[in-house]
User: Which sequence fits this backbone?
DNA sequence: ATAGTTTAGTGTATTTAATACACAAACTAT
DNA sequence: ATAGTTTGTGTATTAAATACACTAAACTAT
C-alpha cells in the first residue's frame, strides 16, 4: 500500500503466498483440509493449501483462488477471515516467503466435492490428530484453532460451520467440539435464544426414534460481534 | 513460509512493506506518529512510517528497523503487535505492494527524542484530528484504534503507554482517553487491583497541592489476556 | 396397545460480577 | 488556619452466569 525510498523496482524482495485453513466439522471432530506436497522442500509432507499471490490480484482474490482451485468451494459460501501473516526467515529453504494465512469455516456438506484436477492429494484431518506438517504449518493451525475457540464465544461465526437449518442441539454440539467441553443444555439455549440472532424455521426434524426438534436458522449471516 | 508450483523465481510478484503505527498518550490525547512523504505518490501527504522488507530480515526485524530508523525507539522497550495485512490493488499507483501493519504502544517520554537524520518530517497527531493521509492509512489507523480500544479491556497492554511507576489515576486517565469515556474511580480501582497485576512501589507521588498518591508498577511486563 | 428408549424442551434458585454512589484524609498555597 | 485539590475507601443494587431434574414427543420392539 506504499511506495518508498530505498527500493528500486529490481532489488530482490520476498515473495508473497496465501495459505488457507479450511475448517469443518465432520465425524464429531474439528477437521482441516491438508494437501500432500509434491516437491521439495518438505516433499511428501502434508501442508496447508496455498498459492503465490499474483501481481494483478488482491490478497483476498488469492485466498479465494486457493479455495476454489483446491476444493471447489466458492468464497461467498463460507466464512473467511485473515488470521495472521508469517514472515520469519526460513531455515529449510533459501526462498524468502511472506505468508498471509486465512481461515475458512465451511459446513461439511458444502465441502464434500473436494475433487479437483489441479490437486494431487487432499485430505481432512482432525486438528487433534495431525500428521507431520511442512514448514511452520503446525503452529499456524494451532493459532487458527485458538482464534476460532475464542471468537466463537463472542461472535456468530459458528454459522459458518452449520447448515442452513439446524437443531439447537447441533449448534451446541459444534460449540462443544470446538471448546472441547460439555455445555449445559438449558443455559446454552437460554443464551443463544437470548441473543436474538436465531429464528425458528417452522419445521421439525423428524429423524431418530425420539421427540422431533425444532429447526432454526440465523436471521442474518452478517458477522456479528457481541459482548 | 512455503514454496509451490506455478511460480518460478523470476516471475514478477508483489513487494512487501511494513508500516508501524506508533501510539502514545500526550497532552491527554491518544496520538500517533506520522511522516510527511517526500515523493510521489502522495508527495507532501502525511503517512505511516514504513520500510520495504529486505530478503534477509523477518517481518519483525523490518518493523523494528522502521521504528528505530524513524524514531530511535528500541523494540524491547515497547509493546508491538501485528495488526493486519493489507493487499488490495492500489488505485493510485502502478506498484503492487502488500503491507503488514504493526502497532506500537510507547509512553511519551521514551518517544521524545524523535529526531533522526534519515527522516524528513515527523509529527505526533491526535487520532481524532488527523491530517489528510496517503494511501489507505486513515483506514489502517482506524482499525488499529479499534483494536487498541477493545484489547485494552481484556489485557494488560495499557502498560505500554504508562511509565514504569504510575498513579492509579494516571492509569484510569489512560483508559478514559482511549475508551473516550469517564470511568468510576472506585470501580476502576477495585477492578484493577483485583486483577493482581499491580504492586505498590512503596513510594508516594508528592506533586501538586493535594494528598499524595501511591505509586504502582506492573508485577510482570508479559502480555496477559484475561476474561 | 403397551412398555422401553431416546432426544427435545423447559424454570428457578444460587453465585458471581458489574454498577451506582459520597465522604473523610493528606497534602500545598495562601 | 483555611481553602483548594486529589487520594483513597465500602456497601447496596442490578445484571449475568451457573447449577440442576423432570416431562414431552417421537420411534421401536413386543
Assistant:
Amino acid at each position: 500500500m506504499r511506495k518508498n525510498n530505498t527500493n528500486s523496482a529490481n532489488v530482490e524482495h520476498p515473495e508473497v503466498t496465501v495459505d488457507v485453513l479450511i475448517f469443518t466439522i465432520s465425524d464429531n471432530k474439528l477437521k482441516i483440509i491438508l494437501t500432500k506436497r509434491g516437491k521439495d522442500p518438505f516433499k511428501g509432507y502434508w501442508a496447508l493449501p496455498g498459492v503465490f499471490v499474483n501481481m494483478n490480484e488482491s490478497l483476498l482474490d488469492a485466498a479465494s483462488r486457493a479455495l476454489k482451485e483446491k476444493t471447489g468451494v466458492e468464497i461467498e459460501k463460507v466464512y473467511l477471515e485473515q488470521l495472521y501473516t508469517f514472515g520469519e526467515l526460513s531455515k529449510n529453504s533459501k526462498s524468502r516467503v511472506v505468508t498471509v494465512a486465512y481461515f475458512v469455516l465451511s459446513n461439511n456438506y458444502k465441502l464434500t466435492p473436494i475433487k479437483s484436477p489441479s490437486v494431487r492429494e487432499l485430505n481432512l484431518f482432525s486438528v487433534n490428530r495431525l500428521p507431520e506438517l511442512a514448514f511452520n504449518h503446525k503452529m499456524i493451525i494451532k493459532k487458527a484453532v485458538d482464534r476460532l475457540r475464542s471468537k466463537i464465544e463472542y461472535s456468530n461465526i459458528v454459522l459458518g460451520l452449520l447448515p442452513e437449518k439446524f437443531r439447537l442441539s447441533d449448534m451446541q454440539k459444534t460449540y462443544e467440539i470446538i471448546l472441547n467441553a460439555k455445555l449445559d443444555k438449558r443455559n446454552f439455549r437460554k443464551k443463544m435464544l437470548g441473543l436474538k440472532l436465531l429464528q425458528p424455521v417452522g419445521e421439525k426434524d423428524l429423524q431418530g426414534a425420539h421427540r422431533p426438534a425444532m429447526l432454526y436458522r440465523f436471521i442474518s449471516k452478517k458477522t456479528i460481534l457481541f459482548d
Q: What stands out?
A: Chain B touches chain A through 53 residues (CB under 8 Å). Chain B has two domains: 12-151, 157-218.
